[in-house]
Every structure is written in structure tokens, then in C-alpha cells.
């Protein structure tokens, strides 16, 4: 057994977080109560769930039945103490150390850095991260947690002033569950607006505001409150008289038109530990043989850990007949909708359903399909009806949504239709349908251009001829876009063509003829350049995609993208060589100069240098590094000297 009493230091991240929190001027300190009640409610959920298979965990009480599961809230106004008690699952000593001494969540480091950068006064950040239990240090000068895990003998007491360390003591016998005592800070004398959390009336208000739909009774001794209409008076099994503070009706069970936007938002915040309102709410009921209710939210802010490893699971909780069964139920929504938060409550699944059963369950597969469709429909409505909000959504979660094109064959077109791509033409990102609608009449292709940076791509030589005809291309610059392009060969019957790969397709018959003539005329130049560049490019040919630039590099039609190559390199895998073609713009005056040089026999041997320069320019134009920068720099200096003679 661990030593009975010990003092331990908080993990560095916790210490820093607490420091920021204690001195924060965050005006929503009241959320601490919501966090504590959510934790208590989770602990009761867990106990009930565990007791399905181990009834002894919840034994005792009258006639061998379990005691009533509830959350008690008490306040001692003169001593400035708040006590929150639950008879839920409780924690072992090791769990206390793990849960109340560290922050296990990934993304913590980054969160703290951002908090430091923006200043601790940035309330969205605190809320966004969901600092949970630790938020109590905004209102308490010291906190004591006494807890006993269901099914174990001994309890433990944790206490801290939030100043860097905490103390653990063994407690011997304790009631099952957790009791948290907050010693509140004194009321500030210089702030008349300050809320007094030692006021029972205020606590009752806060319960109604944030936690009304919590499924477990939240009770307070009758002596603390004046009786008023909405309060239900009850006598508990131990004889104590209490008021029940919450209505307990899960929000999703109520009918849609009875629920106010504000209530939806409060429930979302309770669920997601988020501070900001959701961007969109999807609430529907499925009747019939597979009966369930889903309440799903699209958040308005991107969580800091969205792209962390291990965060690729769905964020939807599964309930069965109003009983919490599991959080993060990946069977309910695909991973590319993992930004969605919410609950699905089934009337038909068995309560003790396991992950293994879920994976094979047919009604679950239907639920997943329907929920996915509903979310996508809501996003389409957002795109069409509230464009500014949709753009906000897209900025936060577009990258994740795009994964749907890559992994979900059945929904490629549906998801593609939701994507916004930056256009080569103007600043505003557009959808594929908008692209089609404004393309010149007769254009039966959708042009895309890939690269690693938007600014570079927009200036790419590959766009020159297209732009001269008034055309535009969609820019694909995110790493995920390379996989998207592999999957998305066409959209609504229009072929998708990558401008920087393969032959230029927009050349008409006349232009084709012109190019064939030019190929013949410039054969000597092309051959010389090709041999001069020995191996750096697969071949050299005449271009029909350029207007201003002298040359450009073109990829194979099925080449790997830059991001993909980078990934291979980072993971130490071999990078297949790119077979690229250098295209020469024969309308550029340089081409004529090259030609006369070749015709004159290239006595000075300049052609090799010029070829290298053209190649280097083409690399620079696409934002690629030069293989031999010092040589490039010397060639340019030589040219400058020669021209200033
Ligand atoms: P979060 O709730 O976001 O996980 P918290 O800091 O609020 O973060 O709580 C950390 C963990 O401590 C919880 O996940 C839970 O395991 C444990 N915990 C907190 N409060 C209780 C409680 N009343 N009963 C049992 N476990 C609790």
C-alpha cells in the first residue's frame, strides 16, 4: 500500500494552468459548478453501467436494492463552503493522482502556449479546452476531495490550495463515491458585480441554467432555500428533506419545437465542455423498427487537439433508453465527421451492449448511415443558407471533412459538393458547383492545380494560358488534397484535370497543329536541352500552357504530389523519382535566341548553362528548392556581367 499521507507536486502543466486560472479575470467563473456536476453525473453513469455486470458495486440500501443515485449540493454561507457529493463510481488513490494531479489530454502543451500568447484573460480558450475540475480554483482558495471507489474498502482524501502541490491521505471508511468541498475565496470588496457563490439562491440558478437536463437528481437541503413554485420537495431514504433543483428531462427527449436555441446551446456546452455556441444543431427522431433519437452539434471552433493522434474517433455518446452506455462511440459516425459532438439514444439496443456487439449490429449501421446523411444535409443547408457561417465551419473542419472523399466511396460526390476550394482567380473559396456554373460555356472539365502553397500556386506558369482564356482553376494545397485528387476523378460528369500534370488539355485543334509544327521547328533545341539536363528531366517538349514564362515543369498524369513525397521522406521511406517534363514556351523571345544559338553550332557552349537556368527558373516558379543553388547564383551573376558590358 502507498504511504498514508504524502504531499506531491502537480505535473508541470497543471501547475501552470492553475497559476493562470487562479489569477484569471475570466468572467464566467460560474462554469465551475457545471464542470463539477458533469463529473458527478459521469461518475453516476459509470457506476450504473458497471453495476449491470457487477450488481454488488451498487448494493446496500433498502431491501438489498442499491441506494438512490444522486448529486447533493450543499452550501454553508457563513463559512463560505460549497459541498458537492455523488454516490457514483468514486476513485482509487491511483486514479486520484492520475485525474487530479495531471492532465492526460493531448494538446495541453499547445493550449498553454496559446493561453500564454493571448493572455489568460481569453475566456474562449479556457472554455474551449474544458479545464474541468481545475476550474474550481477560480472560485476556491482550497479544495478537498474525499472519495472511495465502488467495490474497494478504503477511501482517500486529496486536498490542495492550487499552489503547486497537493496532499493525499488515507481515510479508511468513507461512503461510496466522491465528496468535493470548496473553500470559497473571500468576496472581493472592490467589485460590486462579483457573484457570491456562497449564496444558495445563486447556486440554484446556476443548476437551472447549466445542468437542468442532468439525468440524476441534484438536490439541496430544504433549509438552504426559500420554497418557490418550481422546486420539488422530497424526503430522501436517510430522512433528510431536500429540494430537487433540476427537471432531469434529457433535452433530446423533448420535442424540437419546445426547445429554445439557448437550451440547445447550454446542453451543447455541458456535453462538449465548450464555451462557445454550436454553429449548427441536428435533432431528429427515427421511428419504426429501429427507434432512436439523435442530437448532434457542429461546433463553431476547432478544438486544439483535433489533429492529435488518437483523436480520430467519433465524439458522439451512445445512450440506451436514456442511460449513458459509452462515450466516443465510433460506430455512430465516421471518423471524418469526428468534429460533430452529441448523443444518440436508442430504444432498442440492449443496455449492456459491448463494443464487439456494436460492430456487428445492423441497426447500428443504419443509425450511422442516417446520422451521417443528416449531418451532411445540415452542412449543405448551412452552405446554401448561411455562407459566412459555413466558411467559418470550413476553416475549422474542412480538412477533416475532406477525408470523407478519400475513405468513403459511396459519398465521394456528396462530400466533394461540400468542399470549398480557393480559386486561382480571386480570394473567395468556391464549391465545385459554383466553379461549373461560372466556367466558360462548353468547358467540360474542372481544372485543378496542386502545390504546397496557395500564393505560389496562384502565380504558377501552368495557369498562364488558361487565365488568358478567362478560365480559372481550383487550388489544391492541403496535404489531404493529394489523396482527394486521387479519388476525385470527376464530379457530376465533368472530368477533373490537374493543370500541372500531363498534357495540356485545353488546346484546340488549331493549337495542336501549331504545336506539332513548333516541335518540328525546335527539334534541335529540344534535343540539346534534354541532353544538357541529363537525367534531371525525362524529356523536353513544346508547351501550349504558357504565355509569359519561358519554361515550366510538368508532372506525369499520375504523379505523386509534393506533400506525399514529403510524407515518404519524413517516415524514412524511399521516394520514387519523379519523371518530369520540361516544357518550353516557343512564343517567348528566349526560345528564338536558343534556336539561333543551336543553329550557329553553340560554339561558346552556352546552351548547357541556359538550359540549367531555364530548369532552375521553372523550379523556383513552383516553389521547389534548387538542386545546386550556388551554381544558379553564379550563372545569374555571369549573365548580369555579360549584359552590362
Ligand atoms: P474531464 O471531466 O474533462 O475528464 P476533469 O478535470 O473535470 O476532466 O476530471 C478529470 C477526471 O477525474 C475525470 O475524467 C474523472 O475520471 C475523474 N473525476 C472527476 N470528478 C469525479 C467524480 N466526482 N467522481 C469520479 N471521478 C471523477
Could you give the topology of this structure?
Blueprint: E1 5-9, H1 12-22, H2 31-53, E2 71-76, E3 81-86, H3 93-101, H4 108-118, H5 123-129, E4 140-148, E5 155-160, E6 165-172, E7 177-184, H6 200-210, E8 218-221, E9 232-235, E10 241-244, H7 261-272, E11 280-286, E12 292-298, E13 315-320, E14 323-326, E15 341-346, H8 355-360, H9 362-385, H10 387-407, H11 412-416, E16 421-422, E17 429-430, H12 432-438, E18 445-450, H13 454-458, H14 464-468, E19 474-476, H15 479-487, E20 490-491, E21 494-498, H16 509-521, H17 523-532, E22 539-542, E23 551-554, H18 562-570, E24 581-584, H19 589-599, H20 606-621, H21 629-643
Parallel strand pairs: 2-8, 13-15, 18-19, 18-21, 22-24
Antiparallel strand pairs: 1-6, 2-3, 3-7, 4-5, 4-7, 5-6, 8-10, 9-10, 11-12, 12-15, 13-14, 16-17, 20-21, 23-24
Helix pairs in contact: 1-4, 9-10, 10-15, 17-20
The structure holds adenosine-5'-diphosphate (ADP).
Amino acid at each position: 500500500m502507498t504511504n498514508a499521507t504524502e504531499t506531491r507536486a502537480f505535473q508541470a502543466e497543471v501547475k501552470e494552468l492553475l497559476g493562470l486560472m487562479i489569477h484569471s479575470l475570466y468572467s464566467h467563473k460560474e462554469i465551475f459548478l457545471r464542470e463539477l456536476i458533469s463529473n458527478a453525473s459521469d461518475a453516476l453513469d459509470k457506476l450504473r453501467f458497471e453495476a449491470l455486470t457487477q450488481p454488488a458495486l451498487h448494493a446496500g440500501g433498502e431491501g438489498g436494492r442499491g441506494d438512490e443515485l444522486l448529486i447533493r449540493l450543499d452550501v454553508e454561507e457563513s463559512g463560505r463552503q460549497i459541498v458537492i457529493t455523488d454516490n457514483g463510481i468514486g476513485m482509487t488513490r491511483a486514479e486520484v493522482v492520475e485525474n487530479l494531479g495531471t492532465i492526460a489530454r493531448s494538446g495541453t502543451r499547445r493550449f498553454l502556449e496559446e493561453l500564454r500568447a493571448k493572455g489568460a484573460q481569453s475566456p474562449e480558450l479556457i472554455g474551449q479546452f474544458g479545464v474541468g475540475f481545475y476550474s474550481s480554483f477560480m472560485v476556491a482558495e482550497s479544495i478537498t476531495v474525499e472519495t472511495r471507489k465502488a467495490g474497494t474498502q478504503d477511501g482517500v482524501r486529496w486536498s490542495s490550495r492550487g499552489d503547486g502541490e497537493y496532499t493525499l491521505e488515507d481515510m479508511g471508511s468513507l461512503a461510496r463515491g466522491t465528496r468535493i468541498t470548496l473553500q470559497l475565496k473571500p468576496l472581493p470588496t472592490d467589485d460590486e458585480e462579483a457573484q457570491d457563490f456562497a449564496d444558495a439562491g445563486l447556486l440554484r440558478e446556476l443548476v437551472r441554467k447549466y445542468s437542468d437536463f442532468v439525468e440524476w437528481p441534484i438536490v439541496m437541503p430544504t433549509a438552504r432555500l426559500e420554497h418557490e413554485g418550481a422546486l420539488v420537495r422530497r424526503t430522501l431514504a436517510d430522512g433528510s428533506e431536500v429540494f430537487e433543483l433540476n427537471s432531469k428531462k434529457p433535452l433530446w427527449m423533448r420535442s424540437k419545437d419546445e426547445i429554445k436555441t439557448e437550451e440547445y446551446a447550454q446542453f451543447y456546452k455541458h456535453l462538449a465542455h465548450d464555451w462557445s455556441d454550436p454553429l449548427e444543431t441536428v435533432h431528429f427522431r427515427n421511428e419504426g423498427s429501429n427507434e432512436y433519437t439523435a442530437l448532434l452539434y457542429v461546433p463553431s471552433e476547432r478544438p486544439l487537439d483535433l489533429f492529435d493522434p488518437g483523436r480520430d474517433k467519433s465524439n458522439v455518446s451512445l445512450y440506451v433508453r436514456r442511460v449513458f452506455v459509452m462515450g466516443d462511440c465510433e460506430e455512430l459516425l465516421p471518423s471524418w465527421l469526428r468534429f460533430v459532438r452529441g448523443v444518440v439514444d436508442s430504444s432498442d439496443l440492449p443496455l449492456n451492449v459491448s463494443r464487439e456487439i456494436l460492430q456487428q449490429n445492423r441497426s447500428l449501421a443504419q443509425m450511422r448511415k442516417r446520422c451521417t446523411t443528416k449531418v451532411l444535409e445540415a452542412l449543405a443547408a448551412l452552405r446554401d443558407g448561411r455562407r459566412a457561417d459555413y466558411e467559418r465551419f470550413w476553416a475549422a473542419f474542412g480538412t477533416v471533412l475532406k477525408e470523407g472523399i478519400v475513405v468513403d466511396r459511396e459519398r465521394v460526390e456528396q462530400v466533394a459538393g461540400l468542399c470549398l476550394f480557393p480559386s486561382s482567380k480571386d480570394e473567395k473559396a468556391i464549391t465545385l458547383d459554383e466553379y461549373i456554373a461560372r466556367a466558360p460555356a462548353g468547358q467540360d472539365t474542372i481544372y485543378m492545380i496542386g502545390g504546397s502553397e496557395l500564393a505560389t500556386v496562384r502565380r504558377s506558369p501552368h495557369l498562364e494560358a488558361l487565365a488568358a482564356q478567362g478560365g480559372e482553376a481550383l487550388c489544391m494545397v492541403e496535404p489531404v488534397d493529394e489523396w482527394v485528387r486521387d479519388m476525385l476523378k470527376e464530379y457530376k460528369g465533368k472530368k477533373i484535370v490537374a493543370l500541372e500534370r500531363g498534357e495540356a488539355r485545353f488546346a484546340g485543334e488549331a493549337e495542336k497543329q501549331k504545336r506539332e509544327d513548333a516541335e518540328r521547328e525546335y527539334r534541335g533545341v529540344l534535343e540539346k536541352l534534354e541532353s544538357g539536363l541529363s537525367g534531371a528531366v525525362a524529356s523536353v517538349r513544346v508547351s501550349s500552357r504558357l504565355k509569359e514564362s519561358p519554361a515550366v515543369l510538368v508532372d506525369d498524369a499520375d504523379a505523386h504530389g509534393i506533400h506525399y513525397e514529403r510524407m515518404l521522406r519524413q517516415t524514412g521511406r524511399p521516394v520514387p523519382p519523379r519523371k518530369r517534363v520540361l516544357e518550353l514556351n516557343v512564343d517567348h523571345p528566349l526560345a528564338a535566341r536558343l534556336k539561333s544559338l543551336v543553329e550557329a553550332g553553340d560554339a561558346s557552349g552556352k546552351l548547357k548553362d541556359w538550359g540549367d537556368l531555364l530548369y532552375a527558373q521553372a523550379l523556383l516558379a513552383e516553389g521547389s528548392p534548387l538542386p545546386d543553388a550556388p551554381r544558379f547564383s553564379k550563372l545569374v551573376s555571369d549573365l548580369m556581367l555579360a549584359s552590362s558590358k
